[in-house]
Amino acid sequence: MLHLLFAILSSAGIFVCFKYLERYKVDILLAIIINYITASVCGYLLSDSKIQISSLLEQSWFSISIIIGIAFIVVFFIIGRSTQKAGISITTLASKMSFVLPMIFSIVFYQEPISLQKIIGFILAISAVLLSIYKDQKDTMQRKYLWLPILLFFGAGTVDSLVKYAQEEYLSSGGQEMFSTLLFAIAAISGLIVLLIKKQKLRSLFQAKVLIGGTLLGLVNFGSLHFLIASLNHSGFDSSIVFSIINIGIVSISVLIGIGVFRERLNKINLLGIVLAIIAIFILTN
């Protein structure tokens, strides 16, 4: 259960970091690059064995780590583009609801058992997410940009499904630190390439607020992946349940942080969502 708790807290920490990056007007791309560099260094330091290029090339998960690493940075850019063009609410909805895909993937591909209790828990979990992020005001959205949140839904869900696949096939007996190191390093390299394509100077990475914000973001980002894999390995719950609990936990804690730290207001529908989230977690864990 501790792995699940830390996975939720570290993932919610990403929400807090992005809020402060926005408040202090930190360039998101620069912070994301520093974030991935920091996360890869964390993986290297925590790895039991000394990481060498030759040993990485020999790992069975080498190819999928490259795919996931590139997908990480791609999904990030989709989030940014969708927020700008499709609106914040629908982008948030698409991102949060993407946990449905790895949940279905775990049930279908790995034939995890289905029970009435689990079905009720899933329905409550999905309802809790929808209600927790509901806002009274409606974002205006041009229909021609509807493909962006749809792409985000499938992109983010596919990334989580690939992480589940890697955990099940290659990481169930260990090696997640080395895997995470390469995955985050690939994402960092992808970000640097984008930076060069945009013709931004590399020295812009060394601004104090970029280094501080990016490093903090990298620490919680590494923790979110590390503890997600640890939860899948050691929690004792089916993967579909793990994804559900972590997601509704992230939403609930993020909402509470929004109220306590950033003075955001909740409506009655949001409160109902939090109550449903607590009920869903209770059902899924018993």
TrEMBL record:
It comes from the Bacteria. Keywords: Membrane, Transmembrane, Transmembrane helix. The chain crosses the membrane at residues 6-21, 28-47, 59-79, 86-110, 116-134, 146-166, 178-198, 210-229, 241-262, 269-285. InterPro entries: EmrE-like (IPR037185). This is EamA/RhaT family transporter. The lineage of its organism: Bacteria, Pseudomonadati, Bacteroidota, Bacteroidia, Marinilabiliales.
